Amino acid sequence: MKHPIRPRPLFSALLSLALVLPAVAAPPGQVPTPAPTPALPDAPATSVQPPVPANERLTAADLEAWLDGFMPYALEQTDVAGSVVVVVKDGKVLLQKGYGYSDLAARKPVDAETTLFRPGSVSKLFTWTAVMQMVEQGKLDLDRDVNTYLDFTIPPYQGKPVTMRNIMTHTSGMEEVIRGLIANTEKDLAPLDATLKHWIPERVYAPGSTPAYSNYATALAGYIVERLSGEPFDVYVDRHILAPLDMRHSSFSQPLPKRLQPMVSKGYKRASEGEAQPYEYINLAPAGSLAATGADMGKFMIAHLQNGAYGDTRILREDTARLMHGTGQDSIKPLNRMMLGFYETTTNGHRAIAHGGDTQWFHSDLQLFPDDGIGIFVSTNSAGKDGSARLIRDGLVTGFANRYLPGPANEQKGVDEATARQHAQLIAGAYNSSRRADSNFMNLVYMLGQTKVVANEDGTISVPMLAGYSGAPKKWREISPFVWQDTNSGDRLAAEVVDGRVVRFSAEPIAAIMVFQRAAWWQTPAVFLTMLVGSLAVLLFTVFAWPVSALVRRHYGVRYPLTGTDARAHRWIRIASLAVLVSMGAMIGMVFAMMSDLSLMSPDKDGMVVALRSITTLVLPVGAAIALWNAWTVLRSRRSWWAKAWSILLAAACLALLWIAIATHLVGFTANY
User: Fold this and answer.
1) How many CA atoms lie within 13 A of 241 on its CB side?
2) N or C: which end of the chain has fewer CB within 10 A?
3) Contact 123, 289 (CB under 8 A)
4) What confidence tens digit (pLDDT) does each residue in 277-313 have?
């Protein structure tokens, strides 16, 4: 989600499948008048040290000079068409500026005032703000079972219900939902309630126990706002957040209001290709459907930096805003925490709360430094070369903090060399992301994209998935027992140890929204990949040898040597091998095609998904049964030791693929994922 991580393409796809001018008061008629509300509890004190003063270097002139040096070069190097940057300070816009183009064909430059970007999951901050408005009005209790507010039921996990606090801190325990997340056409949009009710994802963790970022849970929160307010979600946000903040060029509506449609930036794969991509429709709209200008995002930042106040109006009471910004949910101590909607990104001793956002083409980040009165928003409109648009976002925010919000050097002494080596060996191994599909066929993606921790010879550790800007894995040095720090930044990595064994770890800046859990022995690449690739190779060789052997016999005039039961087993095992290979290959191919093109996850592709899963469900058990029968037949015959050994290999391969299909939920008859 945020700096400075460069996930591998497979993982980043999940993570995909993943949002300024002087204050102007809204007309009185546009500002909602809330009913008398109960007092909210004070936010608990944080563990952050007294704030470090902001650098006086941060002036409009210095900032513009720095950005003008950074942005054009960054856009060119990453092959990104355009970007917008907004910085606010002390309740005012310090600088808002567009770079590059919003429409390459028309050579239309980005305008911070009028060009709408798609901030992706930054949209969630508006949803959380709406939720807190419901809390203010006494309509919603953060710690009550959310089923109280729904017209369908979220099943409990081991008797424990989900609460809104769990949802806001991404600890609802729900698995990932990917189906229909992003659509390319309006006809693929479904109503929010229908989308949520179509399939309720499995609860795989106890509520409040494990951070696992959830678009579904966020959309559920938006639906609750819709039900409690009596207004469609997009209308509610427009009336109660956008209008009071004078955000006239922003909307959650899909399609956008006609007056805004000509102002939206095009999205691109790469600027050099020049081909504009379709507008991205978000079925779980409260999780990411916002379109907004940089100038409007500046107003939103000012309101939160001023604890809900913007000019003469408010979107939140001060105590509500403080509760939202200061209530932390620990992931793995002492790493940055998840607040009520924002995640903590404290940098250089400066308290920071933030949210990033990614669609297929747009990549955004919003960072607030509440104690310094500073906020920064950046968004790009292209995926860029090898997905490198994230480097602009992450590098800009990191560079901004280091230049204008410096802090004291970290003087952690670390642990002794022997302890560092011992702990490095303890944490080394394969891990699964807590944010994953767990009960459906997309689990295969996560099984193939596991996170590996490597113990280095010098006592440091490396996590290839957590790479620096160069693409090289970071080196993490232990600074206290089971807490490591990146040797080139202040980011920390920490592990949770139970009975002398590392069971999970996480690292900044993603610690607030996910952890990595120790993989079971059979899930490790050495076992799982060996079984998968080895079994497919055995079947492929068998299928390939079938026509080859027939051609060789024909060429030399040799008769088919088998008769009776041996001949039937020989023919059937080749047919079964072909069927298993094709069905398994089709499932794996479909999964990877979906990850490279999210439009294939559209609900109108459900028929394809059901058909392939159904075929696989029927073919794999039958193929395994035939392979076992063949092995039994061959072992009892007088055929060569090679034939007997290969029959055992074939049976093992078919059984292994059946087991893999069951374990990763490739088998089944539904299109829920």
Assistant:
1) 31
2) N
3) yes
4) 999 999 999 999 999 999 999 999 999 999 999 999 9
* Residues 6+ positions from 253 with CB-CB distance below 8 Å: 234, 238, 289
Neighbour-count burial for 86-96, b at 16+ CB within 10 Å, e otherwise: bbbbeeebbbb
User: Would you list the DSSP string of 608-668?
Assistant: HHHHHHHHHHHHHHHHHHHHHHHHHHHHHSS--HHHHHHHHHHHHHHHHHHHHHHHTT---
Neighbours of 640 (CB within 10 A): 10
In which region does residue 567 sit, left (phi positive, over 0), alpha (psi from -120 to 50) or beta (all else)? alpha
Element (H, E) at 367: strand 363-369
Tokens of 657: 């693929």
What would the two tokens of residue 83 be? 């970007």
Residue of 535, 575, 544, 572 lying closest to 661 (CA atoms)? 535
Q: Which residue blocks in 437-501 are alpha helix, DSSP H?
A: 443-448
Cα–Cα dist 528/524, whole Å: 6
Interior/surface letters 563-581, b for 16+ CB within 10 angstroms, e for the rest: eeebeebbebbbebbbbbb
- Helices (H) and strands (E) counted in the chain, each on its own, are 16, 24
Minimal CA–CA distance to 364: which of 110, 6, 121?
Answer: 121
What tokens were used for 283?
């079925």
Q: What is the pTM of this model?
A: 0.89
Residue 188: how many other CB atoms lie within 10 Å: 17
Please state, in angstroms and rounded to a whole number, the distance separating the CA atoms of residues 393 and 71: 10
- Work out whether strand 451-455 and strand 108-109 pair parallel, antiparallel, or are unpaired: unpaired
Indicate the pLDDT class of residue 468, thresholds 50, 70 and 90: confident
Backbone angles phi, psi at 539, to 5 degrees: -65, -40
Cα R_g (the chain), whole angstroms = 27
DSSP code at position 339: -
